[in-house]
């Protein structure tokens, strides 16, 4: 990046590390699937940290579990509306759905019963299951968002049962190995940072424990590096390789819950946090464990993302830091749009469909896009717009907004001439309320007057 951009980024990182009294901190900017800038501050032992220094990433672990669950869904091994009891029978939580567990709307208690799991040696699944009595179901499933670490312990067990292996083995074989994330592990491997608590009234440190959480490990066990986590940020932005279809990743980024208010600023999708920040929507996850804080977010539209890792228990505004890093990049070096170029080929029949259509009296414009996609949008600012992807059978599936998932069909007369568009029972005609088209309810025989 430009020297002015790099200095501004380093200045923001340095101010956070010094002002928050963090023992060490590393951060990076990801753009277009690559690290474009990285910075380090502080010390790990007697040396500065590097891009290969491991930090604990806490709840960012949940995003890996969510990807495994979505892979199982895409393979047809489960449905998100399935009750847990279908796949993990006999628990007190069997009445909640897989989707509710992913989105933290299942109503489960936030922490596992007993001692605080993040600082205590973990127990196996049988012990966790036995501890989840009726008292640990805090809300009616689906009623509200209630962040639950337990829910991801449950999802880890779900993955293990459907894969016939451990959740960690599934993460290694299905995600880490294909993405070449070799420095992401369940326990630290050198070089790694020690986690600390910083005394609130003196510049002294207290080492924090990092036990194996076992059954609760899917909620926050993993350690990673700047390099590995940058690859994961690119993944969340849509650079999924062969691990997950980009459409499935986009589905995960869609908010299933949003912060209550007139204008939502934060929400949660299927394993991913979503935020509104300076007019953009970014997705990712934050993480905290005793001695560590982590955050990783990306704007899928611009493919600009930021991540930061530090080895302190509290006191660092990690979300504000990554948000500021993204804003600085967009301000100092806004991404240039790709050059426009004409389509290499097109279907003349599809070209004939383009132009003006009407839903009732409201005019819409249909445009042909590369790959045979269609774009339908109102001529005025008001109305429902969507892109449509061809299905290969003459129909199209909506991808956005109100029409997401709905079918667009081409209506023809007995001679095969196109007469109308049928979109989820809404009839679009070349002229407003064309009497020759099957307009629902018919058209007044006396016509316009």
Helix content: 10-25%
Could you describe the largest sheet, including whether it forms a barrel? 8 strands, antiparallel
- Overall CATH architecture of the largest domain: 3-Layer(aba) Sandwich
Question: Helical region count?
Answer: 10
Oligomer: single chain
Task: Give a topology summary.
Layout: H1 3-20, E1 24-31, E2 34-42, E3 55-56, H2 61-74, H3 98-102, H4 125-131, H5 149-163, H6 167-176, E4 196-198, E5 205-207, E6 223-224, H7 226-236, H8 246-253, E7 257-258, E8 266-268, E9 273-277, E10 280-289, E11 292-299, E12 304-310, H9 318-332, H10 348-353, E13 355-359, E14 362-368, E15 374-378, E16 386-390, E17 396-398, E18 407-412, E19 418-423, E20 426-429
Antiparallel strand pairs: 1-2, 1-12, 3-6, 4-5, 7-8, 8-9, 9-10, 10-11, 11-12, 13-14, 13-20, 14-15, 15-16, 16-17, 17-18, 18-19, 19-20
Helix pairs in contact: 1-9, 2-5, 2-6
Briefly characterize the structure.
The chain is 24% helix and 23% strand.
Write a structural description.
By secondary structure, the protein is an alpha+beta fold. It has 2 domains: 3-332, DD-peptidase/beta-lactamase superfamily (Beta-lactamase), CATH 3.40.710.10; 348-429, Lipocalin (Beta Barrel), CATH 2.40.128. It is 24% helix and 23% strand. It has helices spanning 3-20, 61-74, 98-102, 125-131, 149-163, 167-176, 226-236, 246-253, 318-332, 348-353, and strands spanning 24-31, 34-42, 55-56, 196-198, 205-207, 223-224, 257-258, 266-268, 273-277, 280-289, 292-299, 304-310, 355-359, 362-368, 374-378, 386-390, 396-398, 407-412, 418-423, 426-429. The strands form 4 sheets. An 8-stranded antiparallel sheet has the order 2-1-12-11-10-9-8-7, with helices on both faces. A hairpin with a 2-residue loop joins strand 10 and strand 11. Helix 2 crosses helix 6. The protein is globular, with a radius of gyration of 25 Å. The model has no long low-confidence stretch (mean pLDDT 95).
